[in-house]
Amino acid sequence: MALIMNTTEIVSALAYYEKTYPRLCQRIVLPEKTFEKRTCYALRIARSRGRNKPAVLIIAGAHAREWGGPDIVINFAGDVLRANHNRKGLQYLKKSFSVRDIKTIIEDRTIFIFPCVNPDGVEFSHNKQHLWRKNRNPTYSKGDPRRIGVDINRNYDFLWNFKKYFHPAAWTSSLASDNPAIETYHGPKPFSEPETRNVRWLIDKSRPVLFLDLHSYDGDVLYTWGNDENQTTDPCQNFLNSAYNKKRGRIGDTYREYLSLEDYETATGVALAVSDAMRDVRNKHYKPLQAVGLYPTCGTSSDYAFSRHLVHPGLTKTFAFTLEFNFEGTAKDPFLATANPKTLHKTMLDVIPGLIALCLAVPQNRRTRGRSTHPSMSRLSRACQDR
Amino acid sequence: MKKRSHLNHKQKVKGVKARKFYRILVEVGPHESLRNLHHFRLDHCCMPQRSIDDAGIRRLHAYASGATVLALRKAGRKVKILADVNAEGKSVRQFVGKGDRFQGGQHGSTGVGKLV
Asked: Is B46 in contact with A217 (Cβ distance < 8 A)?
């Protein structure tokens, strides 16, 4: 049974893969160091060949207290690489993947993993205050230790300025906060933090068709969107349309975020494939759920990743998900449940099949660029003025 | 019949101390907006929440400082303390790896799946 990896071990684990599988693995040094001067690493797993293979990007460790995320991602890589090396399939209790499945991932995909987005926060959570969620940037704290840090998963450039975009009734602390003393402090501007800039850089370089951000705690596979309920009929109601500023984020009202039917079907199809694979392990039901079903959010990694191709039509369309792992430990601290080696092991057995299923679920006949079903800003303005 | 406590023996919280952190359940009305608790600065993101009980009472699961617990109680909120957060954290620190078990990449984690 494994202990939780500390931040040094997370870096060493990636070095081990690069050393053991030099033809398949390449460790990537990310451009930004954290506030505490830690270097961040990602790993690229692919058989290097010329053709353009679809990329999958999996990140974890953004919220420091959600112990186990980095361990799951590293063991996912370890499983796939070991199985490929031995030309074997993989079994997780009742769920199996064939030799062909593993070969597909290695030969026909490019996998990027970034197991510890927020090493400063993770280190602090492991050694000082386990409930720490944010990074450790003290710039906005005015010397008050309770005000240190920015919530990494509220600092991405998607409806970041919540007071401008969301209805005042939706301004709860779970949406985001502009108060550094709150756990969801979103920073002074989008991408103010090196951790989020590292993720943006990795998305820019990897151009993933699938993106997954691993979190805990709820037992869900969350799909687009997180700011409001989805609808597939009115393209005018979307996050780019200023006519709907201050109307977003209230569940059950008239504003709903547009997602084309084609994208909705793809997003839910992938979420279902991931949750089915996890359920097959030991019948624990991870629910496919629209992200807003947890609570409305803004500035999150997954909404940012999916929104990129809508803001910049030349970019790759990235279907993005957040996986909230864990079921155990409702009577004790939920985020620490995976500290227990037995629970961590069970959780890895549950979640790694989901990550393998994600890699296998790359949408076929995918439209990787453009937004034919989504209006451009100019078209949008004209269409909405006509109403 | 005696009710089982959420706290184990070692973690019993005798008195609320303003500077300590606690994991708590706060009673909220079944249709009450969490906006009403906004100024208490409760930390409840991603925490598992229980559904409304048979009596129609909703309990928000959150972290809060002792000072916040006292303020909630002063405002007439029923607060149940589940645990002293620091005590919980200390008890699991033993499960975090020490040093570098992988010796800079000489060894590594090989996964948990069974090869078939």
From this structure: yes
Using a CB-CB cut-off of 8 Å, the residues of chain B touching A348 are: 112
Nearest Cβ partner for A172 among B34, B85, B99: B34
Domain that holds residue A176: 7-385
Domain count, chain B: 1
Inter-chain residue contact B43 with A127, CB threshold 8 Å? no
**Per-residue pLDDT reduced to its tens digit, A348-370:** 999 999 999 999 999 875 555 44
Q: Which has the closest alpha carbon to A116: A190, A53, A183, A36?
A: A36
Question: Which residues of A are less than 8 Å from B88 in CB distance?
Answer: 130, 332-333, 336
pLDDT at B108 over 70: yes
Minimal CA–CA distance to A345: which of A330, A323, A325? A325
Which residues form the domain of B23? 17-88
Enclosing H/E stretch for B75:
none
Is there a contact between A130 and B85 if contact means CB atoms under 8 Å apart? yes
Contact call for A217 and B38, based on CB within 8 A: no
The domain tally of chain A equals 1
Residue B93 lies in a domain: no
Rounded distance, CA B37 to CA B33, Å?
A: 8
